Amino acid sequence: MRNREEAAAQAKKLVSQMTLEEKASQLKYDAPAIPRLGIPEYNWWNEALHGIARAGTATVFPQAIGLAAMFDEDLQEEIASVVSDEARAKYNGQSRFGDRDIYKGLTVWSPNINIFRDPRWGRGHETYGEDPYLTSRLGIRYIEGLQGHGKYLKTAACSKHFAVHSGPEALRHQFDAKANPKDMTETYLAAFEATVKEADVESVMGAYNRVNGEPACGSRTLLKDTLRDKWGFRGHVVSDCWAIRDFHVNHKVTATAPESAALAIRNGCDLNCGNTYLHLMQAYQEGLVTEEQITTACERLFTTRYLLGLFADDCEYDRIPVTDNDTDAHDALALKAAENSMVLLENDGTLPLCADKIRTIAVIGPNADSIPALEGNYNGTSSRYVTFLEGIRSFCNARGIRVLYSLGSHLFKDRTSGLSKPDDRLAEAAMYAEEADATIACVGLDATLEGEEGDTGNEYFSGDKKDLLIPESQRRLMDILRRHSRKLITVIAAGSALNVSGGNAKVLAWYPGQAGGKALAELLFGEKNPSGHLPVTFYNDVDDLPPFEDYSMENRTYRYFTGKPLYPFGHGLSYTSWSLSDPSLENDRIRVNVHNTGNMDGDAVVQVYAETDSPYAPVHPRLCGFCRLPVKAGETVPAVIRLDPLVRTVVDPEGNRVPVEHLTFHIGMSQPDPQSVRLSGVSPVQLAD
């Protein structure tokens, strides 16, 4: 296993040979070379949210929210291991040619483990959803896949954005996120603590916003008292991009750039994504920082570089060839992830489609032949994209089924051509729908409509959603298709909760990655059985929610929501039927028999929810365990589900974990609430502790 103490000693020795100016220069994300010490330039900024991003060809897996919908820890780590293999393959080749540019290093600023507390947040699809336990488990395994288990780090992962960060995007540079101690411990900090203590994550990125008055990237409470002193974090801290500039420009907690740089580095922010640390030497001259503080930050950063084997001649990952990027095996894994992530929301029996009974199918909608609908954001560029239309057409061509295609509408504008009248593709959509035995409506969003607010450090110019509806142009398209389709299957590409009315069946495809079209075709025609489950609550309307700016967890997420959801957290239908029996509790593990009582093989996603009568417990039972396992039609398979180590505690109003005496476990394919049971047709079994 890697030796941090040895790496820290090597870093200390190297840094001791640097001048103060040289040490300060290394604290920027684009660290320059120091030729006299044999140190090459290094750019710390790379992204690996669901594949290596923004640096040319790479495998594009489903967006993070889709990975969460798999409810599969093992597959999560397998995907991350492939991502880090590709990172090494590209780094090894590009650095050999002297290319050490942005997005080409081995410090990857992923995963995003913020809690998706409000469906309006544009960046929510970068997360693993709304539940702290699910986020913790998937975050840990993604980090372990990125960092590897060898002598050196394969890549250095990063838990972001620390902390209490989930919109609004438009206010993030000046916003003060106020959270009470209970919500901090129970919700906002839980996944960060788990990734530090269990995954030994190498890096933590601060957030743009303030947290209870302190700017996150310069917060003594977060970076010193909590992260290092309480949790024992040993890696380095990086700012979000240009967040330290916000201290004086937007938050107004400092007056000058040197003061901002000093505040950040004094409280433990080692690396600046941005340019405010260009003012460190002035801050030093003004007596705002010490050489020791600059040295400590520099030593932490070089410790990471030594842990990555960047100054070693025996790093096993140096042998990964450039041809280990964009392989057939990686494409097959992207297909498996897409298949396992898609969620069957509703089905009146229309799905799966029977290829023998269909002669003509219509594929209609602005996301039908859209690559952005596959990608999400923070994405790479695939050489193997299969759009929904392409996947369906390929499947149908092999079976003699005619495919009719219409764009139907613009993604959000009222016409597809500037010279046309409004709704210029509706007639085409209607006429094809009338001709088809079944219509596949491919609607929803992409990262131009929900994503990160545009700024100098970001390529996208989208932001938060205003409501839970698809754009009006698509709503008019859906009205037409409902009237003219014999059978209407709605396929929604999105990264968050939407309320899309109508259709005989609904499939949530998320942003499914490069193989999304092939996966969708297989699911629609029953070659594969849907098995994704929602990692977020789908609400009927934003009016059901508190104000976006309110960071209290009251009436938020499945744990505290008091209304009736459209689709509950954990919901996901199958083409087969399930039942469970004979639960037992053994050494903090639940054992239960899973019966596939239908006539189709499938993956069961077993979920365990804990309920207690403590006054400090959430309003509803909370997720405390899950597992995915394949079960053939007619078979019974025993499932073993590890429970959350914190399951026998609740958080009091002061933020302290206190024990509980009695628990009731609900074990099923969903939450135990009436809406989930009604939608799934499966009643969870109970087990008293």
| Portion in beta strands | 15-25%
Helix-strand makeup class? alpha/beta
Looking at the structure, the CATH topology of the largest domain is: TIM Barrel
Unreliable runs, pLDDT <50, ≥5 residues?
456-460
Number of helices in the DSSP assignment = 20
**CATH homologous superfamily label of the largest domain:** Glycoside hydrolase, family 3, N-terminal domain
Radius of gyration: 25 Å
Number of strands: 23
The backbone outline, from C-alpha atoms, is globular
* Spatial strand order of the main sheet: 9-14-13-12-10-11
Comma- or semicolon-separated keywords:
4-stranded antiparallel beta sheet, alpha/beta, globular, TIM Barrel, 3 domains, Immunoglobulin-like, 20 helices, 6-stranded mixed beta sheet, Rossmann fold, 689 residues
Describe the structure.
With 689 residues, this protein is α/β, with parallel strands linked by helices. It folds into three domains: 39-320, Glycoside hydrolase, family 3, N-terminal domain (TIM Barrel); 328-554, Rossmann fold; 578-688, Immunoglobulins (Immunoglobulin-like). 29% of the residues lie in helices and 16% in strands. It has 20 helices and 23 strands. The chain has a six-stranded mixed beta sheet with strand order 9-14-13-12-10-11, with helices on both faces. A four-stranded antiparallel beta sheet has the order 18-17-22-23, with no helix packed on it. Helix 1 (4-15) crosses helix 12, helix 5 (132-147) packs parallel to helix 7 (190-197) and helix 13 crosses helix 18. It is globular, with a radius of gyration of 25 Å.
